[in-house]
Amino acid sequence: MSRHEVPVAGRRVVLLGGGPAAAAEATALLAAGAHVTVVAPEVVASVADLADRGLLVWHGREAHPDDLDADVVLRLPSAPATDRVAGRAQRVGTVTLVGAGPGDPGLLTIAGRDALLAADVVVTDRLVPQATLRDLRAGVEVVDVAKVPGGRSTPQETINALLVEHARAGRDVVRLKGGDSFVFGRGGEELVACAKAGVPTRVVPGVTSSVAGPALAGIPVTHRGLTQGFTVVSGHVPPDHPDCTVDYAALARTGTTIVVLMGVRTLGPITDALVAAGLPASTPAAIVADAGLPSQRAVRGSVATIAGLADETGIRPPAVTVIGEVADVEGLP
Ligand code: SAH
Questions:
Q1: Is the pTM of this model over 0.85?
Q2: Alpha-carbon gap, residue 219 to 257, rounded angstroms
Q3: Is residue 311 annotated as a catalytic residue, yes or no?
Q4: What is the C-alpha separation between 333 and 329, in angstroms, rounded?
Q5: Is the distance from the beta carbon of residue 127 to the nearest atom of ligand 1 less than 6 Å?
Q6: How would residue 58 be classed by pLDDT, with cut points 50, 70 and 90?
Q7: How confident is the prediction for the chain on average, in pLDDT?
Q8: Is 208 in the pocket of ligand 1 (CB under 6 A)?
Q9: Distance (Å, rounded) from C-alpha 271 to C-alpha 49?
């Protein structure tokens, strides 16, 4: 502590360089309670040892300053040739959350594609457009967590552990999900798990089905003069379910467009609750299934009829329902 002019306890300190000076600095910083990351292609054995023991994080490759999220950055001399350990084997990799967009592989962002092309491992999901995985470098490991034992219900902890394990083994991991990772994608939990394990992370936002699903069916989620907002809710449990925390009565009064994800099976109870709470039964509604895929289908009706129509026409998940005047804008193609 005495060596440092600023208190470092609990702070993230990045040391650029892996020589004896870095080793001494790291030891002092750790004693003072700092979270230490060393960025250097090669480091002296004592730094490698601290990294092995999980006391600090060692990046063997150039790291982007944004990824490191440092409070303090110190530049120190690099490791002398006589006393160094190769970085490749022991460097900590990174985890990048990439939103793949819905259905159409063309809706992956350029930043997302760049991250995929640089990945050593891609951990993917069932709603990710398969074509997104076509252009990966040779030898890239693809882990489909929908297919690991346990199937769709792979516990989040198992996925978190997998991401951390690959990154700790020095690999750059892309965690690829349908739509956007933070819209019912559990991306936040994965970031927390990585942060706890000292694994640096980055987020590449994706095109979310909650906006793109309606858009691909020609429905704008907002429209000047009709609605001043949109509310996206998860319909995975019906309104009367103990796990449901959505206030449907309040939602019915918001005056915003209502977008329901994961709500095919529960659409009847959800629309009933909205109408019971005073949303006019004539409010336009549409359900868009397989948005962005060749099999895309949209069914239109009102909040009172949409659940029955979806059922009769055999709409299956994934589908997004949009309720509000925007579902029937005059003059739109
Ligand atoms: N993170 C995703 C949403 C995950 S929840 C996103 O931002 O899009 C899964 C739900 O998303 C599905 O039940 C469905 O409601 C919706 N969804 C995902 N892909 C879709 C698609 N191609 N067409 C319609 N709805 C889709």
A1: no
A2: 11
A3: no
A4: 9
A5: yes
A6: confident
A7: 90
A8: yes
A9: 60
Whether 125 is a known active-site residue: answer yes
Return the residue matching tokens 């709603």: 127
Angstrom distance (rounded) from CA 50 to CA 306: 60
Token representation of residue 293 = 């895929």
Q: Are 14 and 70 in contact (CB under 8 A)?
A: yes
Does pLDDT of 82 surpass 70?
no
Residue of 280, 286, 283 lying closest to 324 (CA atoms) = 283
Find out whether 38 and 26 touch, Cβ atoms under 8 Å: yes
Yes or no: say if 269 and 238 are a contact pair by the CB < 8 Å rule: yes
pLDDT band at 88 (very low <50, low <70, confident <90, very high): very low
**Pocket lining: 102 vs ligand 1, CB cutoff 6 Å:** yes
Q: Which residues partner with 286 through β-bridges?
A: 300, 322
Ligand 1 centroid to Cα of residue 238, in Å, is 18
Residues 6+ apart with CB under 8 A from 66: 202
Catalytic choice (144, 247, 262, 272)? 262
Report DSSP state, residue 150. T
Nearest-CA neighbor of 203 among 214, 211, 192? 192
